[in-house]
Write a structure and sequence with these properties.
The chain has helices at residues 3-10, 14-22, 24-39, 44-51, 55-61, 64-75, 80-87, 91-98, 106-116. By secondary structure, it is mainly α. It has one domain: lambda repressor-like DNA-binding domains (434 Repressor (Amino-terminal Domain), Orthogonal Bundle). The longest helix is centred in the first third of the chain and has 16 residues, at 24-39. The two termini are 30 Å apart.
Length: 124
């Protein structure tokens, strides 16, 4: 069962639906933050320098590039192995990036962004 199918199944549970909907405002704020940063062509470091908010805090607010990577991969209904085949990035490295154990880096960000139909800066 992939992530989308799992969510579809969970949406049959009224308690899950209630909790899921309760989080929508948070996800909306996150989406606006990510979109605004990408629109301005800014990295987290640049945003930190301008706002005075530590880059680590911005990363946590944005849920970290690894979580964004996993979410984008699920949205495209790709396994880590399939994404590895498309991008040429070893599956082990993708797993490590998703778990915050390996930085994505600019070269990999560009490969991942192309495969996942997102802006590469979202991984930086």
């Amino acid at each position: 069962m992939n992530f989308r199918d799992h969510v579809k199944e969970m949406m049959k549970d009224p308690e899950f639906v209630e909790e899921y909907k309760a989080l929508e405002p948070e996800y909306e704020i996150l989406e606006q933050l990510l979109s605004a940063r990408a629109e301005k062509n800014m990295t987290q470091r640049e945003l930190a320098d301008i706002t005075g908010i530590p880059q680590g805090h911005i990363s946590r607010i944005e849920n970290a590039p690894g979580v964004f990577l996993a979410g984008a991969r699920y949205r495209e209904d790709l396994s880590q192995r399939a994404l590895a085949e498309i991008t040429g990035i070893p599956q082990r490295h993708i797993s490590e990036m998703e778990n915050g154990k390996r930085p994505v880096g600019k070269a990999n960000a560009r490969k991942l962004a192309e495969a996942l139909n997102v802006d590469y800066r979202m991984f930086l």
